[in-house]
Structure formats: C-alpha cells, structure tokens
Amino acid sequence: QVHLVESGGGLVQAGGSLRLSCSASGSTFSSYGMGWFRQGPGKEREFVARITSVTGTIYYADSVKGRFTISRDNAKNTVYLQMNSLKPEDTAVYYCAARRGTISFDYWGQGTQVTVSS
What we know:
Elements: E1 3-7, E2 10-13, E3 18-25, E4 33-39, E5 46-51, E6 58-60, E7 68-73, E8 78-83, E9 92-99, E10 107-108, E11 112-117
Parallel strand pairs: 2-11
Antiparallel strand pairs: 1-3, 3-8, 4-5, 4-9, 5-6, 7-8, 9-10, 9-11
C-alpha cells in the first residue's frame, strides 16, 4: 500500500512554469510505476505522463510532450512533474498515481489544482 500527496499547484500566467511534487509514504517506492493524470473542467481525467519502476522509461501524452518533464527520486520517495510553457488548456486538477503491475493505477493522490491564466 502507498499513500500519495501532491503539492506545488497554483495560479500561473500562460508561458509560465510550475513544478508538481508527489510524496509517497509506504515501503518500496522504487517498485511502483508512477504517473501523472489531470482532469480539466468539464472533462474526463486524462493521462499526462508516467515513469516505470525498474528502467525509468518515460511516456508522455502528445499534448504535453516537449513542455512537461516527469522524474522520480527514489531516495526521497517523490515523483515530480516539471511543467513549462504552460497554456490555459493545461488548467486542471493534477493527480499523482502509483501502480505495482502494468494494467491499472491502483493508488491515487487527492489532486492539486493548476490554473493557467491567459
């Protein structure tokens, strides 16, 4: 079991940057694949980025590729999402998630609000 807490959200102007953090409690953080998802107003939750547990392979949604960077620090039990060149359409609640397997994300944080003004 792992408990996830996101932080770092806020209000930023278009073109600005934010770094989200997700702190995980529990053992064996390094064995979890980690991901970031978001849900914008009136939209369904969508995948943003993920990083695998063993190889650290990274995947991004096309909408954020080249602007967002996911990383993890296993010594700190933390995964990050660096968001640059933010756009108003990036406005959403951002969720951190973890999984042991390869099918679905089993554990979710409470979310952190990111608002990008035009």
